[in-house]
Design brief:
Helix content: 40-55%
Oligomer: single chain
CATH superfamily of the largest domain: Ribokinase
CATH class of the largest domain: Alpha Beta
Radius of gyration: 26 Å
Bound molecules: ligand NPW, potassium ion
Strand content: 15-25%
CATH topology of the largest domain: UDP-N-acetylmuramoyl-L-alanine:D-glutamate ligase
Largest sheet: 9 strands, mixed
Strand order of the largest sheet: 13-12-11-14-15-16-17-18-19
Amino acid sequence: MISAYTGTQVRAAEEPLLAAGQGDVLMRRAAHGLAGAVVNELKSRGSRLNGSRVVVLAGKGNNGGDGLFAGAFLAGRGMRTTAVLTGDAAHPAGLAAFERAGGRVQRLSEEALPGLSDEAARADVVIDAVLGTGAKGGLRGSAADLVEALAGAHRRGLVVACDLPSGVDADTGEATEPVLPADLTVTFGGAKNGLLADPGADFAGRVVVVPIGIEEHLPEPSLRRLEDADLARLLPHPARRAQKYSRGVLGVVAGSEDYPGAAVLACRGALAAGVGMVRYLGPPSVADLVRRSCPEVVCSTGTVSENRVQAWLVGSGMGPHDHEQLTRARDAIASDLPVVADAGALPALPAMLAPHVVLTPHAGELASLFHRLGHGEDREAVEAGTLAAVRQAAVRTGATVLLKGATTLVAAPWGTTFSQADGTPWLATAGSGDVLAGVIGALLAQAGPDVGRFSEVGIKGDSRWAAIAALGAALHGRAGRAASEAASGGPIAAGGIADALPETWGKVSMLSNYEAWKRNSHSQPLR
Ligand SMILES: NC(=O)C1=CN([C@@H]2O[C@H](COP(=O)(O)OP(=O)(O)OC[C@H]3O[C@@H](n4cnc5c(N)ncnc54)[C@H](OP(=O)(O)O)[C@@H]3O)[C@@H](O)[C@H]2O)[C@@H](O)CC1
Ligand SMILES: [K+]
């Protein structure tokens, strides 16, 4: 599990060490980790170190200090280093170390701007160490001009952000442009929220966390990301004597005369995600299509209360005039069973929900939801601050909210939040959300009652609904990526995501089988 923190949490964790006079040690560890990551990245690209050119953009605070110390380490490895000081001052010890190591120092000014931006554009490595967790707002003045010129320039070099790309808010992921997009962000002590939430994540590139000795002082993370080992532990596995009902039945209320395919794709997503059985409820013409496309699905005509299931999926492919389907959706939400409420169900929700109801809006649908709740955020505002928006939506509805995007965020009403970025941009295709709703519905039906499995990885009580939704997003994203990779990186259609899901699931669970085998490998073999 990747844990992320706010800047304030990280600074509080640094406090006891700063009070003990360990500030220099922390900074040198951070700088050493940053320089090491630059060296590793250059080596992995087959670039030589000796003689290659590094430009450190150094702000006046400790972030600039990290950059200057890292520049000193790199100069010691034979690299030609230039520090561009963007403020009226520089970290004194960092600057002294940089100069001792033979680095060249330039001060940024309006006159020097064209020459320095040209030099940075031609450098093999640019280290962005202007602003870190102590920043207020984005880049200003000549530093903003320099970064704007660099961001637009034709560069071939590596851009490495020190702690976080300057201009990205560590706590929220909001970005005040211009921001220099990094290939790699080396972050200290723990990942920052802003690196795992859009739009900050757009600028972060690959994120490497360097431990600096504050880790034992860090509190509960503010944001988490499920990784391979977590997925392997959390995916449900059928018991030896399982039967289809004990494995979980998902009721699907989706599709309409206008969008019958959404019902098919939701059912395909659910079937591919291990559910014991899918029951479909909807208009006869849609039910016909579902039967023909997925003969495994049992189509029912009754009401919600007449169909025994462990979880419901409602809303995919439904419109505001599908009254019968909307009534079923409302009944499902009132049933006290776990529900994933997608697309057409979102405008029909009661004002107050519970955390076992998982809403799956994209940014536009979330903006509409806010409007209905009397909170005027438009789509652009949601996209500019996804983390704040998803948390706000969870607080205001009482539901678990999953905000779909390049980075998918899931928030519980009390703030527990997951961030998953497992997919590919090819996932932005019609029907992809219907498959996702199917996958989450299937997982709710199977894993909902299994409180113990989640608490083993530190996810307590009702926070598991958010974890289940995050698990669904991770599987869906990985299946989409696998489908695209099978097409040599080419495009995918939504059905292809469902087709790739069982193998994706299998590969993830092999990890947990391997862990179990390792635990038991001391036992005597059978003779
Ligand atoms: N604590 C530690 O020991 C460790 C900290 N570490 C590192 O320190 C970083 C945090 O350092 P920090 O607190 O010095 O803040 P930082 O982000 O460098 O910038 C703030 C400076 O810039 C200024 N400023 C603010 N906004 C501005 C703007 N928009 N445009 C221009 N200037 C602006 C502001 O000055 P002011 O305006 O307040 O006079 C202030 O001087 C952290 O990210 C990590 O890299 C690691 O080494 C581990 C050990
Ligand atoms: K930075």
